[in-house]
Specification:
Layout (H helix, E strand, L loop, with lengths): L8 H27 L6 H7 L14 H25 L6 H9 L2 H5 L6 H5 L8 H19 L8 H23 L3 H19 L1
Helix pairs in contact: 1-3, 3-4, 3-7, 4-9, 7-8, 8-9
Length: about 200
């Protein structure tokens, strides 16, 4: 005798709610990088996610709670991309590969899917403690990833150089996106790559 296991209506509803929640967070993670925190409205997020505005509070207690998850997701996505770049090359080439990918034309143009630190850094001081805490966790992960690529990883000097490297990378990308002069944008990225290669080489 064969028994067919069927999903209960409750399980189906729970799975559907989880899928909707993930969709909202993914949309919000792109939206904050594209439009900034203040430019990211609940109604627009829900519309882009294909859901009604009224369904928002079935997923989040507040807009702030959504922003916390959005910045967590954006940071996790960016760090996963960075980790995949590192994993694709020999260890001796990992730092340079990461720098080249971060300061590439593709990343420069891909603000919606790129590093949230460079997209949102100037807005961070005005955000809630919860949003800043979530962003800080992801920034620390990025610093740790860079430190692990240093020849002297595990030493205080590697962590210190990682701090400088991350600050330089992020600052360069912010400036390269800010200017309306393509030649200057390229020059900023190229100068940083050259400078960091000399420091870390």
């Amino acid at each position: 005798m064969m028994f067919v296991m069927r999903k209960s209506p409750t399980n189906i509803r729970t799975a559907a709610k989880e899928a909707s929640h993930e969709r909202i967070v993914d949309v919000a993670a792109r939206a904050i990088r594209r439009s900034g925190y203040d430019g990211t409205g609940v109604a627009d997020i829900m519309k882009e996610a294909g859901l009604t505005h009224g369904a928002f509070y079935a997923h989040f207690s507040s807009r702030e709670a959504m922003l916390v998850e959005a910045v967590e997701r954006a940071g996790a996505q960016a760090n996963a991309v960075a980790a995949s770049v590192v994993a694709a090359v020999p260890p001796a080439q990992s730092l340079q590969a990461l720098l080249c990918a971060y300061l590439s034309k593709e990343h420069l143009d891909g603000i919606e899917t790129g590093c949230p630190i460079s997209a949102l850094g100037s807005e961070m001081p005005r955000q809630s403690p919860e949003v800043r805490r979530a962003a800080t966790r992801r920034i620390k992960e990025m610093i740790d990833l860079i430190a692990r690529q240093m020849p002297d990883w595990g030493q205080p000097s590697a962590h210190e150089r990682a701090l400088v490297t991350v600050a330089t990378m992020v600052g360069t990308l912010m400036l390269a996106r800010a200017v309306d002069d393509n030649a200057l944008s390229d020059a900023l990225c190229n100068a940083t790559l050259k400078s960091l290669d000399q420091v870390d080489g």
